[in-house]
């Protein structure tokens, strides 16, 4: 177990320290599970009342929350504008201290083509294949069983977990993380139909991924048909996501698990997609659009905001009733029109009465 | 082809045998495809009329169905309260007889770290990586290309098919089955947002899986952020499922293919989820809840029962009509309110007439 | 860069050549990005006006479009009835010219069982496992890290990308393409329930796949419970698709990414499924049915046509209103009935007035 003085954490991550700078910390934990060797954080003002029960040695919080809780917390405080961001950075600080170092070098059970270029400081694990003319940058970690195709390029400090595929000619930038089972650069789904049979359209574009991108387990990103599929800097993709060929995903957009994006969709920057949201192909979504989980985007979205479209859950018996009516809404509308007409005619009759 | 005497099957699986105990059986098959060397089963009373056409040598059924079919079936009978359960157990019996045995030992093309502990009776296939301090129990079968991370633990009698990932420090119990391509213990999807950019929250929890759990092909279960993701005993997960970080899934809950569960969802015991059902994060589902396929669970469910929420399928032209109305239901409701008002005012007028 | 004379392309792919047969072509590109060494195509008459701006040396189009654009394009023309199909075939022609040849043979880092049969012209990459009695046909390419189970069979000219699993006894035909991470033949999801616990039903059927089938990255196709799961000739499956046990998918049916098909569904020929469409188990879909993206097929479809069922997307605030009403449609219907009754009674009263 590594221990850090509070002052060293604050020196590294920032914030204003109030209290004993020499407290020894083993890590960071939520209010309710923190022990006496932890620093904790108050990011949600609703949890203020829990502060008096935490056993943590130190607390990250805003100046205003610090004033509110007054003497409820006897330990040290770190004052910051954004406690949740501070929590993330402090957690990174502790994780880095606890990290098991990986020795550079090519494992004797790896298979590296003669023309591949591997940086000296990179680690290539057992059963990794690196094909001709592939390039792997400084400090990369390529774990067991991964596949780096012919001419593919990986920027420095990028980490591939076990069993990742990066196919021929595709490239990914610096400081990316790709989780186990992800497949980058499989063929896009492109066919011409000739009298019922599908004629394959060769997928000759690449996948081009920026820096600081994270790609989840078993996520797939298809190569372009002729042009490239592009994922800009800072994009975060969760697990089991499918990105179709020739998509363009703007910087810092994040997608939760099971999202699907059909081919040639152009998605802006700073967007978020809830789990299992789906996007049809050949449409445009501007910056700062937020799609709720389980929602189908079937046309372009040209105005920022939150969009939703899923059928509300109900007890099965109630759903069965509502679903039947949904299927017959056109007849319900017709009835309403008839009622309006009938009422109008009665009104007229009434008015015409002497 | 292995053959079993009926009496040996009944001795192993149970039930009351009526008829010739020495019939030789090669396996179990449905009523319509069984041949003279098969035992078959009647689990659905609606299929009683098919009994007279089956060629099977023996029949598993309830006492009541046995009385109903009277002389329609000339072969041997096995009487049981639960013929479908009996079918499953008999099928296991025959599958076990037909199983190609796996010789214990570590394949010469595996890569096993010096500090890993592998039980003598376990099989480790080619191109399997077992990292430092991992532990693999008695009679485990770890097939080709699987990855067992640092400090991960696998209980006895557990079977990993080819190309499974179990990441560092995660653990799985006894008698589990994990299918090809599954990824257990990838990072959960956790970020803090700092002025539009995503700051990664290290995922330092584990995945902890009980006994008798089955995990489908290409299913992903993320490790916890700080605490663990927990899958209790007897849970059955089909293919392509995504379980987010810090979820807790109660014992004997089953999920069909393509289900997604967002982070920190707490799901009870004995629940079932139809294919592609989705569960939002940070909510609670009590025991014995059944979610229909394609339904989105967007709030906690605190009462057992069946819940559904998907848009009913229709011919496209009809759907287009109903979808337009669904988007404008608020205006339909408004029209109805106006009609009600108008009618009321007419009623008043009418009553006021002399 | 390979260059081809236009006449050689036309000789191989067909069509009527108008103009200089000796133009040298490096490849095919869309109207707007084609350069002077490209052939391009006009498959959508709406794009006719772009023809005058393209820099391409040659143009594929219909006779009627050729007449329409008159002198707008000065280069060579290839006249065909189906320019998009011609584009696909021409792209294949160029891709084949540019293909990096794969030398036949078994890589020294592969693991091939003694009883496996590998055609001389096949390529088996590093870290591929081929188990006992498996068969791999002529000109097959089996890339790094793939797993071919005991007794599995692969027809000639089939290409497995890196890290594919084909499990024991399953078979796939000729000229198929299977993308990275696909799993063919994992156990179907079959259990009997005994007092809350799930008893596994051994999955002893196979997956049997025809010729000219393409299977996307991380797609999973489960083996049958007792009978087989069948995928007929020419089926095209995109990424992240789940096909349950004992499904039967008819020839030339295509499914886009993230589709899920539950067990024992019988799907006809020439069907198409949009992304994330879901099909419940034990139902029948006839030939020439087209399911829109995000739609749930919850009952058999016995009539060809296009079917749809997803909740229309709206701004979140609007969706919240419509979703509340959808949940209470039964009460809305009740109000309409009351209005109809009230109106009728007023009508009667009115008629009864002297």
Automatic annotation (TrEMBL), chains A, B, C:
Active site: 245 (proton acceptor)
InterPro entries: Hexapep (IPR001451), LpxD (IPR007691), Trimer_LpxA-like_sf (IPR011004), UDP_GlcNAc_AcTrfase_non-rep (IPR020573)
Alphabetical keyword list: Acyltransferase, Lipid A biosynthesis, Lipid biosynthesis, Lipid metabolism, Repeat, Transferase
Role summary: Catalyzes the N-acylation of UDP-3-O-acylglucosamine using 3-hydroxyacyl-ACP as the acyl donor. Is involved in the biosynthesis of lipid A, a phosphorylated glycolipid that anchors the lipopolysaccharide to the outer membrane of the cell.
The protein's annotated pathway: Bacterial outer membrane biogenesis; LPS lipid A biosynthesis
UniProt keyword Repeat, yes or no: yes
Family per similarity comment: Belongs to the transferase hexapeptide repeat family. LpxD subfamily.
PANTHER family: UDP-3-O-ACYLGLUCOSAMINE N-ACYLTRANSFERASE, UDP-3-O-ACYLGLUCOSAMINE N-ACYLTRANSFERASE 1, MITOCHONDRIAL-RELATED
Protein's UniProt name: UDP-3-O-acylglucosamine N-acyltransferase
Annotated EC: 2.3.1.191
The keyword Repeat belongs to this UniProt entry's keyword annotation: yes
GO molecular function: UDP-3-O-[(3R)-3-hydroxyacyl]-glucosamine N-acyltransferase activity
Location of the UDP-3-O-[3-hydroxymyristoyl] glucosamine N-acyltransferase non-repeat region domain: 22-92
EC class name: transferase
The reaction(s) this protein catalyses: a UDP-3-O-[(3R)-3-hydroxyacyl]-alpha-D-glucosamine + a (3R)-hydroxyacyl-[ACP] = a UDP-2-N,3-O-bis[(3R)-3-hydroxyacyl]-alpha-D-glucosamine + holo-[ACP] + H(+)
Organism: Keguizhuia sedimenti
Complex and partners: Homotrimer.
Any matching Pfam family: LpxD
HAMAP family associated with the record: LpxD
């Amino acid at each position: 177990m590594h221990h850090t003085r509070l002052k060293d954490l604050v020196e590294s991550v920032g914030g204003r320290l109030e209290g004993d700078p020499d407290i020894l910390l083993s890590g960071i934990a939520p209010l309710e599970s923190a022990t006496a060797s932890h620093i904790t954080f108050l990011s949600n003002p609703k949890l203020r009342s829990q502060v008096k029960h935490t056993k943590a040695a130190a607390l990250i919080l805003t100046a205003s929350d610090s004033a509110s809780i007054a003497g409820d917390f006897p330990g040290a405080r770190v004052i910051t504008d954004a406690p949740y961001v501070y929590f993330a950075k402090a957690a990174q600080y502790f994780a880095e201290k606890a990290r098991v170092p990986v020795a550079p070098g090519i494992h004797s059970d790896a298979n590296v083509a003669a023309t591949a270029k591997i940086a000296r400081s990179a680690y290539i694990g057992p059963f990794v294949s690196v094909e001709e003319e592939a390039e792997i940058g400084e400090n990369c970690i390529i774990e067991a069983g991964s596949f780096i195709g012919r001419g593919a390029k990986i920027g420095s400090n990028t980490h591939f977990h076990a069993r990742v595929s990066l196919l021929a000619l595709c490239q990914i930038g610096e400081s990316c993380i790709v989780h186990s089972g992800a497949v980058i650069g499989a063929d896009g789904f492109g066919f011409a139909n000739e009298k019922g049979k599908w004629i394959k359209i060769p997928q000759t574009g690449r996948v081009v991924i920026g820096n600081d991108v994270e790609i989840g387990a078993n996520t797939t990103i298809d190569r372009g048909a002729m042009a490239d599929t592009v994922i800009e800097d800072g994009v975060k993709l969760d697990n089991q996501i499918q990105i179709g060929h020739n998509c363009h995903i703007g910087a810092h957009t994040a997608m939760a698990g099971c999202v699907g994006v059909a081919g040639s969709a152009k998605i802006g920057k700073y967007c978020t997609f809830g789990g299992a949201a789906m996007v049809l192909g050949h449409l445009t979504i501007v910056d700062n659009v937020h799609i709720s989980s389980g929602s189908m985007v079937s046309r372009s979205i040209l105005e920022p905001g939150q969009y939703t479209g899923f059928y509300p859950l109900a007890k099965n018996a109630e759903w069965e009733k509502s679903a039947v009516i949904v299927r017959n809404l056109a007849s319900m509308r017709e009835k309403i029109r008839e009622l309006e007409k009938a009422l109008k005619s009665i009104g007229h009759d009434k008015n015409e009465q002497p």
